[in-house]
Amino acid sequence: MDVHINQNIPHTTLYSEDLAPVPPSRRTWNTWNYASLWISMSLCIPTYMLASSLIEGGMNWWQAILTIFAGNTVVLIPMILNGHAGAKYGIPFPVFARASFGTRGANIPAMLRAIVACGWFGIQTWIGGFALYQMLQLWIPSLATLPPVFPAAFGLATGPAICFLLFWLLNMYIVYLGIESIRKLLVFKAIFLPVAVLALLFWAINAVEGGLGPILTQPSKFSSNAAFWAFFIPGLTGMVGFWATLSLNIPDFTRYAVSQKAQIKGQALGLPPSMTLFSFIGVVVTSATTIVYGTTIWDPVVLAGKFDNKILVSIAMIAVAISTLATNIAANIISPANDFANLAPKKINFRTGGYITGIIGILIFPWKLVADPTGYIFTWLVGYSSLLGPVGGIMIADYYLIRRQQLVVDELYDPQGAYSFSNGFNRYAMVALLLGIIPNIPGFLTTIKVISPDAVPGWINQLYSYAWFVGFFVSGISYYLIMRSYSIITTTGKNNEINYVTAD
To answer: What CDD domains does the record point to (predicted)?
Structure first.
């Protein structure tokens, strides 16, 4: 069936230039554009820390690499499936979500995704700020001994806090200048960060007597197969959770695709290989720190701070800061800014959405999320995957099983249109969303130590290790079963009359 896009969509309260469908003439992204996008986004400090955290958790090098490759192969599936609607209709994620959640209900998945992006923004900003701190304390030693100004519960020293704030202000200034200002930084990142990371790999190989041999023969720390599986399952879920955000809002990027083939091949070529390769470097360097220093250093910024040459450390930390700045704007500002704009398209633009993202990014206490690998994987990655998995299950079930990939774009912008359901909310989607989230709540509360592990049956707690998978399939199947007898819009007639059919 031909795609129905009315290029003269009425400018309702649900419409803005940022959220409007991209016309075919402006869809210019090819296979290489998508592959390079993923290579660029994968090449960041959190990816390195992802692999390092698995080593710190007890895995050997091949177990960590296998876990990362498997997780990224799994998340590639919903990435491509959700990307189809963007490539076909030119619509961004918040508008696509209106088809399943309703014109007003779409704000719920958009906000869930936006809050997670705010958390990632905070984490990246903390990494960049701490890199500045590592550099400045070499030249201004008193920065490390400033008296505390924050309560002990904050876990935040004064020196790192000052650098964090300075780097945060720099991010907000880039938001003020607009997205075009980031282009040169992205070019810098694409050239310099790979060089810096390869330099760390060179150090690891040369610092350990015997080179890669002793590094790659480091054994896993698990005492039994049961101990390995107890860490592997939530570790795999965390790997899927790492890109669970992008698996939802990938239409924000695929709306510019020249074809479906371009977005499918580009993502398949770009995501799993680049994540696995960059993670391998993180695994090697982290394993080397265990041999060289007698303790596992999973944060590359902390590791670089141990080097003796002030000039070398300063150059490395500036490179990390600039690269992190580029990644932060590209990966963690654009999408949440669109999500916040969806709340009030006429009042919130990209700049305002970026400011909102920045403020929430501070309030989420990012320095606590990356303080140790257990919190990074079990609390942060697995925790938010339990919220985003259900959203992905609902959207894919709606688009492929209920609507058979058929949307009427102009109705998505009509507050009283076919996708308004009941007062703008699809109550069936809300029920399915809750059904997918509820099974993971006990395990999450146990993980953050709000309730005792003995307060609920053990098998319920263990569901949390599979959080993304449980949420995805429970919500997706529930939604399909509830909605399959619902009359849905499939197309519009010659005079724009709306035609409905029963989903089953």
So the answer is: SLC-NCS1sbd_YbbW-like
